Amino acid sequence: MTILITAGHGKTGRRVAARLDALGIPTRVGSRTGTPPFDWYAPETWPAALAGVDAAYLAFVPDLAVPDAPKTIEAFTAEAARQGVRRLVLLSGRGEAEAERCEHLVRAATPESTVVRCSWFAQNFSEDYLVPPEDGVLRLPVGDVREPFVDADDIADVAVAALTDGRHAGQVYELTGPRALTFAEAAAEIGRASGRDVRFEPVPLDAYTGALRDAQTPEEVIALVSYLFTEVLDGRNEGVRDGVRRALGREPRDFADYARDAARTGVWAG
């Protein structure tokens, strides 16, 4: 079989690709610079990217919450069906009505589909916008809400299982870590693992978005970040779920384990 990995250089996509490569399964890493190229916003790239593909991992960029996501997902899954793709695995969001609309579209496209629901990745603290700054103070527009941060390696393991084993067809796996943490507790875990003084400081949303504008962040990105820090991070996703155990038969990785591994890379070195 050949598997297409959309957003193939992203946090989960590159992990999925590495695992499939280790299994000796042919992959097509979807990216604007790929061969053939793939771009979610360039439908003319889809037929070549899907040609000869048996299964596809769908990681929509920037997020399924953006207004045009359902329309794009519907068009893409229709093209995938025309090309004979029989298995789809969608990276979806927890507690997001917009994401659930996209889930229905994917599941309607093929019965051999699997939904992998996730929210905040642990790796956002080491590979994305939550990396603590030089002063070690993580300033974010959030209070004491808890989040069971999920490890991107767990996401990749579940996605690979769903892509390669038909027993996962029709399943919806809601993935979380084994415990919910506040952002202050997550910062403390990072501090312990890195040996740095890392702490969390809440800031008003308008101050945070103002800083993003000062840094010339595009308005659509600011709107998405505001949505994530308000509607999605309102406590609706505090509960721990058993998706990793259901899919893989093991427990999910704890945030402390993630922090120790990330610290070894030097990403948080002072």
Number of alpha- plus pi-helical segments: 11
Radius of gyration in whole Å, from Cα?
Answer: 19 Å
**Number of E-state strands:** 8
Sheet-strand content, in percent, reads 5-15%
Helix-strand pattern:
EHEHEHEHEHEHEHEHHHH
Distance between the termini: 45 Å
Structural class: alpha/beta
Overall pLDDT metric: 96
DSSP helix fraction: 40-55%
Major beta sheet summary = 6 strands, parallel
Shape: globular
Show unreliable segments: none
How do the strands of the widest beta sheet line up side by side? Answer: 2-1-3-4-5-7
Describe the SSE topology.
Layout: E1 3-5, H1 13-22, E2 27-29, H2 46-50, E3 55-58, H3 69-82, E4 87-93, H4 97-109, E5 113-118, H5 124-127, E6 137-140, H6 152-164, E7 172-174, H7 183-194, E8 199-202, H8 205-214, H9 219-232, H10 243-248, H11 255-264
Parallel strand pairs: 1-2, 1-3, 3-4, 4-5, 5-7, 6-8
Helix pairs in contact: 1-6, 3-4, 7-11, 8-9
Structure characterization notes:
The protein is globular, with a radius of gyration of 19 Å. 40% of the residues are buried. Strand 3, helix 3 and strand 4 form a beta-alpha-beta unit. Helix content is 41%, strand content 13%. It contains eleven helices and eight strands. Helix 3 packs parallel to helix 4 and helix 8 runs antiparallel to helix 9. With 270 residues, the chain is of the alpha/beta class. The model has no long low-confidence stretch (mean pLDDT 96). The termini are far apart.
